[in-house]
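Final report, closing paragraph on structural work. Over the funding period we assembled a curated collection of sequence-structure pairs, and we close with a single example.
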Amino acid sequence: MACVKSPFRAFVQFVLVVVLLVGVSPVIKSQTQVDTNQTIEFVKVGQKIEQEIKGLNSHSYQLTLKLGQYLQLFLETQKLAVEVNIIAPSGENVLHIETDKKEINRETLEVIAKSSGNYLLEVISLDDIAEPSHYKLEVKDIRRALLKDKNRCRAKELTNQANVLQKIGTPVGFEKSVERYLTALPYWRKAGEQNVIADVYRKLAESYYLISKYQESINYFTKELEIRISNKDRSREARSIKNLGMVYYAMGDDEQALKYYNQALELGKELDNREIIAQTLNLLGTLYRSNGEGRKSIEYNKQSLTIWEELNETEETAKITQDLATSYYSLAEVKDALGFYEKTLFAAEKEKNKSSQAKILSSIA
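Its predicted structure, as stored:
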């Protein structure tokens, strides 16, 4: 295994965004070529790797594949955001994903070899932190690709492209992501991946929501909800219901929004899913504040704040303290408002978020 810096990362992201926006198939040449003189660990089927990684370092491995072979890898990260690249002997980047920083993140990575030779696998930490984090990597399978493998790999390729476009955060990016998600759906259906189809419905609903196409968003959140109910996936069912409430709120239909929020809250409590409970309580607080019911808004926001503090979710805690400060200020209760603004400022200083600090100081002034 070799540890190296990855200056290529920014270039890969830039090229991916450009080619996806203009509708060209991305073929990215890596600057990291497989050098047979380098000491880079070869990995084989069944091999399990567990490593520490910190800062913005990367770990590199090699795999030998033949033309048309199917590769399946399993990746698990703990409180760590990583980028993973698989680079063909030609230098083409045949797989590029980025994981979110979650308590535990599990990903199944799949590639069909377009040529024979040694493929480079890079695992790159995206967190510039001093304390090391862990990841696990396992080569699950290398074999001849079947038709279902080809459908699933094509579906994943299109879905990963859509995810990149969605993360751009612009109307054009959201529109293009919708195109990619819709193109991916027939391949997922051929692969028979009902859970993933539900995930794609959710992503479609999110993109439509972010470009204010609310009826389309409702349609796809409803499709997702039907699959979650059929699969008895109750936590995701609760999330779907909550998301439907958010769309109705954005449409100005507070009655429907309240109906879905209360359903989500009830199901979250039944499942003891504290994240769903906290999120829904905060959404209820927002709804009541927008209707001039400041006291009721504060009541729900405080309940949400208590849960996020117990879960040690600093980002969510900061958002809700800001909401509480706004609610108290709207009621002309300046002392309480200042108290929550100061809490929000402390959190922003702790996270070294200069932009948030400036906004909070402006509000205090």
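The chain is about 55% helix and 20% strand. The two ends are 54 Å apart (CA to CA). We thank the funder for supporting this effort.
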